[in-house]
Design goal:
The complex is a heterodimer of chains A (about 90) and B (about 450). Chain A is α+β, with helices and mostly antiparallel strands. Helices cover about 35% and strands about 40% of the residues of chain A. Chain A has a single domain, classed as ACT domain (Alpha-Beta Plaits). Chain A has a four-stranded antiparallel sheet with strand order 2-3-1-4, sandwiched between helices. In chain A, helix 1 runs antiparallel to helix 2 (about 60-70). The two termini of chain A are about 20 Å apart. Chain B is α/β, with parallel strands linked by helices. Chain B has 15 helices and 13 strands. The longest helix of chain B is centred in the middle third of the chain and has 30 residues, at about 240-265. The N and C termini of chain B lie far apart (about 50 Å). The chains are: A alpha+beta (about 90), B alpha/beta (about 450). Chains A and B meet through strand 2, strand 3, helix 2, strand 4 and helix 3 of A and helix 1, helix 3 and helix 9 of B.
């Protein structure tokens, strides 16, 4: 499994999750977990996804998601899970 | 599984608190490049470096992208050149040619510094060592990325005062050679006591003879992260303060460990060490001095500074050691003046003097670092300052270093601008009383006794 963390932060608007999920589905990236909150009208979402079945290279997925974020007006970041696991788990 | 709060905490550290991996440094042994023919030697050095490090920069950038953590610098350290060039170099110009090749190789592979234009002379100098040292002004004035260091003392051997005297002159000469650029050459020249073989940080990095053929060492950073964490425990007692620093240092170092392992795997080069140092930059909020202020000082340099720095340094090590399987290098808190906005402010406010900085070096990771002094400071005075700093390292069994910049044509009250990570600095006054007779004695200071510790 190639676990990747996707974070989406920005002004709340209609269809953010739909657009991100559509992109992931089109690229065969499986969503394992989603958590989402609204803090002071700011949309804040984290997804844990598995991209082991995706044919696209990590860098490409990250760039395309960043572009998608710009279209929606939010910031989308894509990072490998290890950075968080290393920092927060012993 | 990882939760949203943990993810946000990590990303906040990167985006708002300047968390980064300061450097991935590839150590490359050049011992197999030794040849009595200088041209052959130069050719071998160039090939070894450009082949070993051809993927270093790209790999660093890939890792940064995938983990979402900036990796600021990619660098190379090599075997002390006095050892590599000794057989081939007969003149100062010969040694400078090696510096030219190092510079060229650094440009080709895209690293911003290459360290190891160095000599290890803690007990005595070979003719090659002396020749290399005498070539430093020339080498640093005509190269851009080469960094130089000279180890003039150690706890086991004492202090080589002949080398200390010589280095005072060499620092002045380097300042003269590079006076057009505010004596910038001196920012790339470090004098050490107890220099570590595996330091990834410039300007003092070199690849020691105890090391493998190639190695990956990583230096982390994160003064801003520590400062922000401490903002939440204002007014709490020392136990809470220390716990907070420790936990933060652990998190910061884990990032370094992850990046080091990943870089090592991708480059097919063994992982050496993670250097835990808190390394500041001139960026606002990336300052060790600000941490000292957050601990409770009005300015770095106020009474209590040495104690605050001692606890900070110790807690950083305690947290970091648990986070990495191999810790090495300098590992502590750096207190460079020009590279730290809080330190610059403290000097400008009159809170921080050269003497207080010297006291601080007794309890922190390195020494008198990136300090601009008047250009008319005598060479013997610089040697005296070096001798004091080396004595601190020798007696306390720690690494100490001196990186002073006598700025030619400028005096106290003026400012010098180095640019980039090297920052800017107000020129600090130096004690005007002489030490010529002391420095000119010649010979060496014997190693200290290792018993009767009081």
């Amino acid at each position: 499994m190639k676990k990747t963390i996707i974070t989406v932060v920005g002004h709340d608007t209609v269809g953010i999750i739909a657009k991100v999920c559509t992109y992931l589905a089109e690229n065969n990236i499986n969503i394992l977990d989603i958590s989402q909150t609204i803090v002071q009208e700011y949309f804040n979402m984290m997804m844990i996804v598995d991209r082991s079945k995706s044919e696209k290279h990590f860098a490409t997925v990250a760039e395309e998601l960043e572009e998608l974020g710009k279209e929606i007006g939010v910031v989308i970041k894509c990072q490998r899970e290890e950075i968080f696991a290393q920092m927060h788990r012993i | 599984m990882i939760n949203i709060y943990e993810v946000n905490e990590t990303n906040k550290m990167v985006e708002q608190e300047n968390l980064d991996v300061r450097t991935i440094t590839m150590g490359i042994s050049l011992l197999d490049c030794i040849d009595s023919d200088l041209d052959v030697c130069l050719d071998k050095i160039y090939k070894k470096i450009t082949e070993s490090a051809k993927d270093l920069v790209q790999t660093g950038e890939d890792i940064a992208k995938e983990f979402g953590v900036p990796i600021v610098n990619k660098r190379i350290s090599v075997t002390p050149i006095a050892l590599v060039g000794g057989a081939a170099c007969k003149t100062v110009e010969d040694f400078a040619k090696i510096a030219d090749v190092l510079d060229k190789a650094a440009h080709v592979v895209g690293v911003n510094f290459i360290g190891g234009y160095s000599a290890m002379v803690s007990k005595g100098m070979t003719p090659a060592d002396e020749l290399l040292i005498r070539s430093i002004p020339l080498a640093l004035s005509r190269t851009e990325r080469v960094c130089s260091s000279v180890n003039v003392g150690s706890t086991k051997c004492g202090i080589n005062m002949d080398a200390v005297k010589l280095m005072g002159e060499i620092i002045k000469e380097t300042a003269e050679y590079t006076k057009e650029s505010d004596s910038l050459g001196c920012a790339k020249l470090v004098v050490f006591c107890n220099a570590p073989d595996d330091n990834p940080f410039m300007a003092g990095a070199f690849h020691g003879v105890t090391e493998a053929d190639r190695i990956i060492n990583v230096g982390v950073s994160g003064p801003g992260v520590v400062k922000t964490a401490l903002e939440k425990v204002r007014g709490e007692n020392f136990e809470v303060l220390c716990e907070t620093i420790k936990k933060t240092a652990f998190k910061v170092t884990r990032v370094g460990q992850l990046v080091a392992k990943e870089a090592s795997r991708r480059l097919g080069v063994p992982f050496g060490i993670v250097d835990l140092s808190l390394a500041p930059t001139p960026a606002i909020g990336d300052s060790v001095a600000d941490i000292l202020c957050e601990i409770g000082l009005e300015h770095a340099g106020a009474p209590g500074t040495t104690a605050a720095l001692a606890l900070l340094n110790d807690q950083v090590k305690k947290g970091g050691v648990m986070a990495s399987s191999y810790v090495g290098g300098l590992s502590g808190a750096f207190i460079p003046v020009s590279e730290d906005q809080g330190m610059i402010d403290a000097v400008t406010a009159g809170a921080l003097t050269l003497e207080k900085l010297e006291a601080m070096t007794c309890v922190c990771s390195v020494g008198l670092d990136m300090i601009a002094i008047p250009g008319d400071t005598k060479a013997t005075t610089i040697s005296g300052i070096i001798a004091d700093e080396m004595a601190i390292g020798m007696v306390n069994q720690k690494t100490t270093a001196v990186r002073l910049i006598p700025v030619i044509g400028k005096g106290v009250g003026e400012t010098v601008e180095f640019g980039g990570l090297l920052g800017y600095a107000p020129i600090m006054p130096v004690n005007p009383f002489g030490c010529d007779a002391f420095v000119n004695r010649g010979g060496r200071i014997p190693a200290p006794i290792h018993s009767f510790k009081n």
